[in-house]
Amino acid sequence: MDIKEQAPTPEQKATIKKLHNEDIKKFQISGYLIGAIICVGLTFLIRIKVFTFIGSYYKTIDSILFAAACSFVAFIISRFVQTQIARTKLDKGLIYNLVQFTRLVTIIVVVFIFISFLNANWYTAAVSLGLISLLLGFALQTPIASLIGWFYIVMRGPFKVGDRIQVGSFNGDVVEINFLDTTLWEFAGNLMTSDLPSGRLIRFPNSLIFQNQVYNYSWQKFPLVWNEISFYITFKSDLSWVEETMRRVCLNQLDPSVKDHVQDMRDQIAETAVEDIDIEEFPFVNFRIHANNWVEVVLIYIVNPKKSSQTRSDIVKAVIAELIKEPGKVSFAAEGS
């Protein structure tokens, strides 16, 4: 079953729409700019001691106002960054996540600015922040690693929503990617012997991608995988006729567009350092001698990974039906041999 791209939620659509609205953008930036100017102006007046009634609190108020001015500047920069992100052609769900991440970073920067300006002793502030960061690092190790894993998925793109992947022992189609975890719709697993969906959802922390290999069966440049089916015939069979028949029947069962991807594979191989791989025909038919004195015929073809089970079943039925029409050219291994 195909997995559609994750549709943006109403909240995501509303957030992205606001970022595209020039009036809202001008209003927000103007507000931040006015706030920064007011804070700078009040800081100047305090430093020339216009407000004498504040007494000994002038240093604290001066630090708060200057920190607020710097924070408004940070919000202005953040708003420009969010606008640029919203203008990209990325998936709306991904744009929303990047915008939320930008806002989170902005809040952290603002908190750091206030802590820095309100603490008169920079050394003490640095030590305090270091200790707090160390404690939070131990306490929130997995969530922080998962957040970094999400950022890696967004930037590096080892997989996206709709891809069929394997991470460690988890196999599934990606249905959702969040800040801390990824959700898969499992295929195969311990409930199925085929690669059909099992009906279970797998949710794993994003940090898992740093600890395991990630197998992606839905690579955009070549979204197909190789499959093979084995048939067992006797030495008396006409191997040339069997090969030609199996290739023809298999090709009829495959989607017509699949054959076009063979050339794509040739092009991909030509662009890499891989040598001595020549794909001359498709599908392939290989012959091997089995230990029980019969010939193993291996039919090799490429297929959409999400349709491989049904395609395999169709090919088996079609090939057997075609071969048994000519008992004089092919004979199968006896039962129980």
Description:
The protein is of the alpha+beta class and 337 residues long. The protein folds into 3 domains: 10-128, no CATH class; 155-216, Roll (SH3 type barrels), CATH 2.30.30.60; 225-323, Alpha-Beta Plaits. The protein has helices at 10-20, 22-47, 58-86, 92-118, 122-139, 141-156, 239-253, 256-270, 308-323; strands at residues 164-167, 170-177, 181-187, 197-205, 214-216, 225-233, 284-289, 295-303. The strands form 2 sheets. Strands 4-3-2-1-5 form a 5-stranded antiparallel β-sheet. Strands 6-8-7 form a 3-stranded antiparallel β-sheet, covered by helices on one side. Helix 3 (58-86) packs antiparallel against helix 4 and helix 7 packs across helix 9. The model has no long low-confidence stretch (mean pLDDT 78). This is Small-conductance mechanosensitive channel. Residues 143-218 form the Mechanosensitive ion channel MscS domain. Its main location: membrane. InterPro entries: LSM_dom_sf, MscS_archaea/bacteria_type, MscS_beta-dom_sf, MscS_channel_2nd, MscS_channel_TM-2.
Largest sheet: 5 strands, antiparallel
Nearest-integer average pLDDT? 78
Broad shape: elongated
Task: Give the uncertain stretches in residue-range form.
Answer: none
Helical segment count: 9
Number of separate strands? 8
Task: Estimate the helix proportion, in percent.
Answer: 40-55%
Structural class: alpha+beta
Distance between the termini: 38 Å
Strand content: 15-25%
Topology as H/E string?
A: HHHHHHEEEEEEHHEEH
| CA gyration radius, whole angstroms | 31 Å
Number of domains: 3
